[in-house]
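$ ./design --mode recover --in tokens.txt
reading tokens...
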């Protein structure tokens, strides 16, 4: 006799398991990781390794001894959190600060809400912003790439910080570019000849990973492209209005954590909208807020704060931009 079995959702299954998706993200990050190892040496290897191991260990311990649930470290989500957190850190960051950042990312940003799928904010960004506020000196002391190190200097300001400081001192954009601190070109930002966090050094490496994620259908283009478009439009308007006070859109796209944030953090499934229209509203908001913070705020960088703010708005976006019901006419 056949029996009708009723079970809770989900009822539709696909090939995209959590482990496979996370594995693809790890593969997509490999070019950026290899570039960071090349330019920052053992310091980068140490920060990445310590961040990943700490995230995995903390997730295991919290699940086993605090939440009393079966550990889920095999899904690789903790590994991805560790990798993304490390790419937001300088390679000379003390080991104990890396461990604290990992604990905040996993313990506060993820597990306190119930683990993967329940966190409202991107865990790696929670860890990064906490460290930026708690340890601002260490988090903003940027080592120069090994190929750019000189006997007189092993650390230096990021391109965004140089522009911010120059404008604060009353210089125009052209005067800043002619100063001795402005020693890089747009070509350098593409291939890694600048100081900054591990994930800021090479736009090309990050874009290679972006292409891989698109081909593998891990993410769609809607969030990253809407972020880039918003950055181009809003920074372009400012630059057109006053090129002496506002840098051009290409500079904003290629410097800081713009590509890293747009491709690898803003696209997090759990903390981004469900619909394509919602994704584009979400991305546009991130782009606008990033330019506002970079241009008028105290921090030279703004993508991390922008993503976290828009993470908080995602439930509202989902409420008013719901998927069309099957069979619905309107």
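writing sequence...
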């Amino acid at each position: 006799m056949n029996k009708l079995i009723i079970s809770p959702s989900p009822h539709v299954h696909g090939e995209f398991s959590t482990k496979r998706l996370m594995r693809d993200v790890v593969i997509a990050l490999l070019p950026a990781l290899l570039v960071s190892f090349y330019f920052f040496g053992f310091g980068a290897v140490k920060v990445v390794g310590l961040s990943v191991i700490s995230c995995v260990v903390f997730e295991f311990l919290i699940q086993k001894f605090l939440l009393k649930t079966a550990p889920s470290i095999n899904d690789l989500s903790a590994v991805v959190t560790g990798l993304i957190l490390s790419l937001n850190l300088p390679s000379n960051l003390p080991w104990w600060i890396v461990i604290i950042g990992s604990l905040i990312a996993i313990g506060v940003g993820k597990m306190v809400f119930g683990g993967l799928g329940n966190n409202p904010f991107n865990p790696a960004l929670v860890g990064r912003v906490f460290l930026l506020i708690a340890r601002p000196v260490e988090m903003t002391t940027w080592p120069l790439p090994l190929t750019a190190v000189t006997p007189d200097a092993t650390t230096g300001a990021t391109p965004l910080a140089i522009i911010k400081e120059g404008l604060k001192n009353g210089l125009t954009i052209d005067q800043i570019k002619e100063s001795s601190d402005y020693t890089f070109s747009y070509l350098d930002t593409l291939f890694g000849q600048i100081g900054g966090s591990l994930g800021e050094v090479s736009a090309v490496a990050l874009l290679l990973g972006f292409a891989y994620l698109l081909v593998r259908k891990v993410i769609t283009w809607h969030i990253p492209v809407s972020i880039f478009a918003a950055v181009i439009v809003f920074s372009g308007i400012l630059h057109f209005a006053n090129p002496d006070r506002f840098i051009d859109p290409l500079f904003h796209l290629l410097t800081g954590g713009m590509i890293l944030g747009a491709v690898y953090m803003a696209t997090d499934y759990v903390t981004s909208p469900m619909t394509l229209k919602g994704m584009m509203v979400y991305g546009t908001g991130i782009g606008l807020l990033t330019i506002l913070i970079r241009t008028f705020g105290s921090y030279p960088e703004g993508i991390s704060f922008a993503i976290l703010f828009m993470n908080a708005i995602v439930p509202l976006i989902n409420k008013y931009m719901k998927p069309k019901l099957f069979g619905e006419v309107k």
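exit 0
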